[in-house]
Amino acid sequence: MLHQFSYAGPRSKQELFRILEDHEGNAKVLAGGTDLLVNIRNGVMKPQLVVDIKKVSGYEGISYSPAEGLVFRPAVTINEILKNQAVRDHYPLLQECGHDLASYQIRNRATIMGNVVNASPCSDMAPALLCLGAQAVIASSKGTRVVPFTEFFTGVKKTVLSPAEVLESIIIPPTSAGAKGAYRKLKRINGHDLGIIGVAVSIKGDVLRIAVSSAAPTPVVTPDLPASISVEDAVAATRKIISPISDVRCSKEYREFMVEVFVKRLLTEVRK
Ligand SMILES: Cc1cc2nc3c(=O)[nH]c(=O)nc-3n(C[C@H](O)[C@H](O)[C@H](O)COP(=O)(O)OP(=O)(O)OC[C@H]3O[C@@H](n4cnc5c(N)ncnc54)[C@H](O)[C@@H]3O)c2cc1C
């Protein structure tokens, strides 16, 4: 039987923060619900209260300016990202990754915030955020703090967020605007499926970054590499950041092999 829970739909940030503080540890934020409701149905999570953040004033929309960069708010779905012109013009890697996340129907509900707070090692949005140097703006009744995504994930399904905190925006810096990028995801089937391996590569000016999902407890990214790096050195730098395991989906050795294949292919693609 489905675990019983109460529902709250706060309209302001103050109301949201108060609810989360009053129910600390017993409340869960609901965005699209495509991870949360599956977890509740499977008995993995048993919150007493589910707090819908989609109606909070100011929590909708994507904004872009050359000075601030790109800002995502908590109700932004993956399909909104795929349709957004500023994302297409300035940060196309986000759309490459978004296209590979689940199906059209799921993307209509699924948010980018939910994807990163869920912190699955196979997150499709994390590689783009890591390559583009994104920052997480985290808020609660106690104030706001900014954490780079290189420090956001702390383990399998774990992040730096405490129970009363909300991921209030994701900022992609203006310095990453115009970065060339590409993403490849290896799946068991041609339709929508969780990744066996996901690799993203971005180049902006003299800096090249490679981010990988499903190959470590968290999505990972290389340090900044020179854009002119050789294919061999790029593969070696990627090997250093991954620590894949064998599981029901494939072996450790196959993951290592496919990361190398994807790095080689993506480097050729982004250098065209
Ligand atoms: C059939 C299916 C296929 C899928 N395929 C993929 C796939 O191919 N690739 C992939 O990466 N994922 C996939 N997913 C997982 C899921 O769709 C994504 O992770 C999605 O982006 C989660 O977003 P959501 O808005 O639905 O999150 P929710 O389910 O609402 O929330 C997820 C978690 O984040 C928390 N949360 C959400 N927003 C905030 C916030 N602003 N602040 C604090 N906490 C917050 C919630 O409390 C919850 O713990 C799939 C899921 C399903 C059901």
Give your account of this protein's structure.
There is one protein chain. The chain has 272 residues and is an alpha+beta fold. The chain folds into 3 domains: 6-52, Uridine Diphospho-n-acetylenolpyruvylglucosamine Reductase, domain 2, CATH 3.30.43; 62-175, Uridine Diphospho-n-acetylenolpyruvylglucosamine Reductase, domain 3 (2-Layer Sandwich), CATH 3.30.465.10; 182-270, Enolase-like, domain 1. The chain is 31% helix and 25% strand. The protein is built from 10 helices and 15 strands. The protein has helices at residues 13-22, 36-41, 78-83, 85-90, 92-99, 104-109, 112-118, 126-131, 231-241, 252-270; strands at residues 6-8, 27-30, 49-52, 62-65, 69-72, 135-140, 143-148, 153-155, 158-159, 166-172, 180-186, 197-204, 207-213, 220-221, 225-226. The strands form 4 sheets. A 5-stranded antiparallel beta sheet has the order 4-5-10-6-7. Strands 11, 12, 13, 14 and 15 form a 5-stranded antiparallel beta sheet that branches. It has a 3-stranded parallel beta sheet with strand order 1-3-2, with helices on one face. The radius of gyration is 18 Å and the shape is globular. The model has no long low-confidence stretch (mean pLDDT 96). Residues 28-36, 38, 53, 74, 101-102, 106, 109-111, 113-115, 117-118, 123-124, 161, 166-167, 192, 194 line the site of flavin-adenine dinucleotide.
